[in-house]
Specification:
Blueprint (H helix, E strand, L loop, with lengths): L3 H8 L6 E2 L3 H11 L3 E2 L9 E7 L8 H11 E12 L3 H6 L1 H7 L10 H7 L5 E5 L4 H6 L5 E3 L6 E6 L7
Parallel strand pairs: 1-2, 3-4, 5-6
Antiparallel strand pairs: 4-7, 5-7
């Protein structure tokens, strides 16, 4: 969007570059928040420690293109982090109404832990759902595969897509 999360990262001292498909929204973030938002992925610099996506992956026309772009932009040990609505059967079973309300035209891609486990089957990952257990995330070694409870409304994946599990 117009860079709200990028702005928060920037204010905490993190060097940030962003991407937005809408030239108008990118211009707003660049002009009003002093951000560096690009509208062409070719203009994004590689060598990043983190590729962060908050409620984007469920909207993109090609998830594999987004993940491949993340791999291109990340350092070998860089992290891919994505938060999105939870499409897992555990969430569906726990809250059928919210599950069915969240997908379709609003969220054409409804991702689950099984999807991420498949896509990142050779990579280290942490997968969990809200409320996120920050202590478990802090203790995750970044080299193994860990899936926690996935019955919450938001799904989180943290992975190193350019690294192999050890």
């Amino acid at each position: 969007s117009w860079g709200y999360m990028s702005y928060q990262f920037l204010k905490s001292g993190i060097q940030v570059q962003g991407f937005e498909i809408s030239k108008q929204r990118a211009a707003y973030g660049n002009q009003n928040l002093a951000l560096d938002i690009k509208t062409n992925t070719d203009d994004l610099a590689p060598g990043n420690d983190l590729f962060y996506s908050s409620h984007v992956i469920e909207h993109v026309p090609s998830i594999s293109n987004m993940i491949n772009e993340a791999k291109r932009l990340l350092k070998p040990d860089g992290f891919f982090v994505a938060e999105c609505p939870n499409g897992s059967s555990a969430f569906r079973d726990k809250n059928k109404g919210k599950f069915h309300h969240g997908w379709g035209l609003v969220h054409p891609n409804y991702l689950s832990e099984k999807f991420y486990q498949h896509v990142f089957q050779k990579n280290p990952y942490y997968i969990g759902s809200s409320p996120f257990d920050l202590e478990v995330i802090r203790q995750w070694d970044g080299e193994s595969q860990l899936t926690q409870d996935v019955s919450g409304g938001q799904l989180l994946v943290i992975t190193k897509p350019n690294s192999m599990c050890r």
